[in-house]
Specification:
With about 170 residues, the chain is α+β, with helices and mostly antiparallel strands. It contains eight helices and four strands; from the N terminus they run H-H-H-H-E-H-H-E-E-E-H-H. The chain has a four-stranded mixed sheet with strand order 2-1-3-4, with helices on one face. Strand 3 and strand 4 form a beta hairpin. The chain is elongated, with a radius of gyration of 18 Å.
Length: about 170
């Protein structure tokens, strides 16, 4: 657990989300998904407000928020780069792609750039083994990914992603 101060967040953004769903336990995952989209992550005050509004124990809200990889308790970047590390992707060079993005963005897998522009994550499998290695940038699949294809997908997101090749 980090010793950083929790940033303030505008809880009024949560009101329209909560209004769309019944104030019941069965709404929890949908509310968390919408809150994640709105805030880019799930800050503590948001989780507490959701628990209160849906009349669900905070422990249950935290359990779901930490169980599913789709949710993050830490700020995430505006752009998400996901590299598949499944067997088919791994044997076709997925780790090289992870290292490439790490060098370009100056972060390690699982981290977010300080400017909150990019989050680099890895997953065990995206289910597109025939296309491996696969990288997903903001929901767009890059099949048979190479460092060149990856740089093109990250152009404008990671400084220097394409400029170096053109020099």
């Amino acid at each position: 657990m980090s010793a950083t101060v929790e940033p303030t967040c505008d809880l009024t953004k949560l009101d329209p989300i909560l209004a769309r769903y019944p104030a019941e336990r069965r709404s929890l995952v949908m509310v968390l998904q919408d809150a994640q989209k709105t805030y880019q992550y799930l800050p503590r005050p948001v989780l507490e407000r959701i628990a209160e509004a849906l009349k669900v124990p905070r422990s249950h809200v935290y359990h779901l928020a930490t169980f599913y990889k789709a949710f993050s308790l830490e700020p995430r970047g505006r752009h998400i780069c996901t590299v598949c590390l499944g067997t088919a992707c791994h044997v076709r060079g997925a780790l090289r792609l992870v290292e490439h993005v790490e060098r370009r963005a100056g972060i390690k897998a699982g981290a977010t750039t300080p400017d909150l522009e990019l989050t680099l994550e890895t997953v065990n499998c995206v289910g597109a083994c025939a296309l491996g290695p696969v990288v997903i940038v903001d929901g767009e699949y890059v099949g048979s990914a190479t460092t060149t294809k990856l740089d093109k997908a990250l152009k404008g997101i990671v400084k220097g992603a394409v400029e170096e090749q053109q020099a």
